[in-house]
Amino acid sequence: MEKIESANKQALSKILQAEPVLIDVQPAGEVIEGLGKNVILHSGPPIGWDRMCGPMRGAVCGIAVFEGWAKDLTEAETMAARGGFTFHPNHHFGAVGPMTGMTTMSQPVMIVENRKFGNRTYCTINEGLGTVLRFGGNNAEVLDRLRLIAGVVGPALSAALRAAGGMPLKSIIARGLAMGDEMHQRNVACTAVFLREIAPHLAATATDAGKLVRVLSYIRDNDQFFLNIAMAMGKAMTDPANGIPGSTIVTAMNRNGTDFGIRVSGTGERWFTAPVEMPKGLYFPGYSEQDANPDMGDSAIVETIGLGGFAMAAAPAVAGFVGAGTASDAAQFTRRMSEITVGRNSDWTIPNLDFAGVPTGIDIRKVLRTGIAPVINTGIAHKKPGVGQVGAGIVRAPLRCFERALEGVAGTLADQI
Amino acid sequence: MEKIESANKQALSKILQAEPVLIDVQPAGEVIEGLGKNVILHSGPPIGWDRMCGPMRGAVCGIAVFEGWAKDLTEAETMAARGGFTFHPNHHFGAVGPMTGMTTMSQPVMIVENRKFGNRTYCTINEGLGTVLRFGGNNAEVLDRLRLIAGVVGPALSAALRAAGGMPLKSIIARGLAMGDEMHQRNVACTAVFLREIAPHLAATATDAGKLVRVLSYIRDNDQFFLNIAMAMGKAMTDPANGIPGSTIVTAMNRNGTDFGIRVSGTGERWFTAPVEMPKGLYFPGYSEQDANPDMGDSAIVETIGLGGFAMAAAPAVAGFVGAGTASDAAQFTRRMSEITVGRNSDWTIPNLDFAGVPTGIDIRKVLRTGIAPVINTGIAHKKPGVGQVGAGIVRAPLRCFERALEGVAGTLADQI
Predict the structure, then answer these.
(1) Mean pLDDT for each consecutive 10-residue tract of chain B (417 residues)?
(2) Number of domains in chain B
(3) Is there a contact between A28 and A66 (Cβ–Cβ < 8 Å)?
(4) Alpha-carbon distance A209 to nearest alpha carbon in chain B (angstroms)
(5) Contact B317 A219 (CB under 8 A)
């Protein structure tokens, strides 16, 4: 027990000491080793084509056409079914991706460096709302947008970030929490603050006035732009806390639309999985629970560092958006999450809770003792390939993952005796 | 009584129906009639050089040098004392100005048009924090900044706003309230949202890359940039509600560092004044109440439309900044203000109060009946000319103004019998 407490203290301290900085944007194939032709990284724990849900299959086909590996969606599907693509979880390559989480060689990825520990993580650039690849969309509009991102947005951000010497992220999150963001389903403030900080550098490094206007408009028109930055930051902060013997702190939560997976510090890179749950939430006009796919994405990394559902109190507007109730209900979510965490992040405070820090460091023992499953704010995808987002809601991490993880950590401790 | 109720309903309705749009930025002398050489508009009700407080005198001397009417501060002071300048309240020329509120011919003013009623209002561009003209600063750094504003920032904003076809402001305020701004002492969210909206237009209309970088940096580095926009908006919204016979709704509150003044709809352009109070608040290191000047500025126009101190619940971070307590105290300020107003603005809601609208339409009868004076969030200037801001706090409108105003409205009603 004492060993666990001390290991957990160490894990929490590593998370809190992190100094995440967005340093650059580069094509994934140039910075992620092993990401070559026909290799597709996806969200969640490991999964093959046979068990992939509809939207993930749709995204796989779309990205294969975008990369030029298949001439159309039909050919892509045939190739996938015949084992023509190699699939790996993003997390195995230092990356994270929202929803279907497709990461492939030609897409630009944002690079976050944790300057305290020197590790780096990667995430693609957010596509905005509507029919988008991450929700399983794969039509011409979706692929054109990916080309705009790769051809214009990525290179412009790269030049600006290099000129700026990187963009420290902790202070942006601190401001975002005071401005109603929880950094999962609401990133409007952080996106605006980020744009405000980067705009002069974008202008100073612009090679073409037309492209500058397109980049500034692209960020302006996407309230969720910052989500992918927050995700890469989340992984950059939790990776150094992984692999501390005996620690029962969660270092990653993710889902692939079929399985939910968690990693725990004491068991390093092992995944503990269980069938993923269906989000409860609100649907866009014309859609209902009948259309919904079970939850997916690596985005629950933000809950792992105390944001998203854990910081719901900071973002009463989100509570309405995800169907979780009123402002007072929002505060209650954050209070409940503090029952399953080992500490608070005093750099990230919530004005509505008289500036209490966000609850940080999920302890699987506390989850199992209280029966309180971590809450995750999430988008809801249509279960069929090619449709896209149909709503937003909240979902709980399945307790079964935590039971298995506890057995896993117990096993490592038993080994030492 | 029935006449008053009906007049007040009409006044409130005019405020709520407003459609304020920031349409352009132009040199004040070109858009404000009568603003020529040696004419200086100031904040608050009418006042002459003899009764002006220290910081306002400092600002007068500074702006006279900036305009080239005096070769240095000493000459400017001599000219002022000999009656060389003509002083008028901003409000008499459709304008508003923060703190000392200097408006003169060569300074660019932002133009807000109320598209519902066609009226226009003006306010200079915010200078940022530190030693600035509006707090009585008048050194070389202050005047250089005014030159940057007139030479670079103003023209760039003008071109961008014209290209954008104007920037509607009500929706920006709505977002700001959900992001922790109250639009008086906290404008960080609205400034970021404004920059996000205008940045593509600034880029599209830029004639010089270096100037574009300077403008984007100027806005980035000034958390209070949006304040002056909110002020012009406030006057654009309240002016059409002024002059409704029998109405006891306040249409302007302002202060010149010596007197506090209010206008009430039923008595039109008449000012009801009383000695201004000293703000209670927090001081920057090295300063104390001993250094403070009594309150000043036209900025209380934002409280007149339900923002600032009236929207304190939206901005718990402000409560700390102005020394007004915790998040729970912040909510209490807004609740109290709803006791002296005749309605709420359902377009501008506060998430922390489960999306209640901001209290709008101060009724002088309710102020006197309850004894609750309107609360104003404010900056604190040093009482000596040339020093600048020394703190921030809250101040109450003097009840004496409201007593006099009630007599004034009663007089107009008596006339009709």
Answers:
(1) 93 98 98 97 98 97 98 98 98 98 98 98 95 94 97 98 98 96 96 96 95 97 97 98 97 97 97 95 92 96 98 88 81 96 97 92 98 96 90 95 96 77
(2) 2
(3) no
(4) 7
(5) no
Where a domain ends, among B231, B264, B279? B231
Is A1 part of any domain? no
Give the tens place of pLDDT for each residue, A167-219. 999 999 999 999 999 999 999 999 999 999 999 999 999 999 999 999 999 99
Cβ-based neighbour number of residue B109 at 10 Å: 29
Task: Compare all CA atoms of chain A with the CA of B202 and give the residue at the minimum distance.
Answer: A213
pTM to 2 decimal places: 0.93
CA distance A197 to A175: 12
On whether residue A341 sits in a domain, the answer given is yes
Can you read off the two tokens belonging to residue A274? 């269980």
Q: First and final CA of chain B: distance in angstroms?
A: 14
Residue of B nearest to A197 (CA): B220
Does B175 sit within 8 Å of A326, measured CB to CB?
Answer: no
Whether residue B173 is found in the same domain as residue B297: no
> Would you state the structure tokens that stand for residue A155, as one six-digit string?
């290179």
Q: Which residues of A touch B193 (CB under 8 A)?
A: 192
Q: Decide which of A169, A204, A231 is a domain's last residue.
A: A231
Q: Decide if B326 is inside a domain.
A: yes
For residues A125 and A223, state if they share a domain: yes
Answer whether B178 sits within 8 Å of A326, measured CB to CB: no
pLDDT digits (tens, 9 = 90+) for A311-339: 999 998 888 777 778 878 889 999 999 99
Tokens of A394: 């909240």
Same domain for A28 and A119, yes or no, is yes
Q: How many CB pairs under 8 A join A and B?
A: 96
Contacts of A189 in chain B (CB under 8 A): 179, 189, 192
pLDDT at res. B316: 85
- The verdict on A196 and A323 lying in the same domain is no
Same-domain status, B66 and B183: yes
Contacts (Cβ under 8 Å, ≥6 apart) of A196: B191, B192, B195, B196, B219, B220
Q: How many angstroms away from the CA of A297 is the closest CA of chain B? A: 27
Who contacts A42 (Cβ-Cβ below 8 Å, separation ≥6)?
A: A52, A56, A60, A87, A88, A89, A90, A97, A100, A101, A102, A103, A256
pLDDT tens readout for residues A129-147: 888 999 999 999 999 999 9
List chain B residues with CB under 8 Å of A182.
Answer: none
- pLDDT of res. B417: 53
Torsion of Cα atoms, B163 then B233 then B308 then B242, to 10°: -170
ipTM of the complex: 0.87
List of chain A residues whose C-beta atoms are within 8 Å of the C-beta of residue B351 = 180, 316-317, 327
Give the nearest chain A residue to B176 (CA atoms). A179
Same domain, B318 and B410: yes
Residue of A152, A186, A216 to mutate for B, most B C-beta atoms under 10 A:
A216
Question: Alpha-carbon Rg of chain A, whole angstroms?
Answer: 20
**Which residue bears the tokens 């094509």?**
A27
pLDDT digits 0-9 by tens, B41-67: 999 999 999 999 999 999 999 999 999
What distance in Å separates residue A331's CA from the closest CA in chain B? 10
Nearest CA in chain A to B329: A354
Closest chain B CA to residue A182 = B179
Taking Cα atoms as reference points, which of B304, B321, B320, B314 lies closest to residue B335? B314
Task: Please answer yes or no on whether A179 and B197 come within 8 Å at the CB atom.
Answer: no
Using 50, 70 and 90 to split pLDDT, how confident is the model at A220?
A: very high
Chain A hits for B179, CB-CB cut-off 8 Å, are: 179-180, 188-189
- Give the DSSP H/E element, type plus range, for residue B198: helix B188-205
Supply the range of the domain harboring residue A40: 19-231
Determine the pLDDT at residue A115: 98
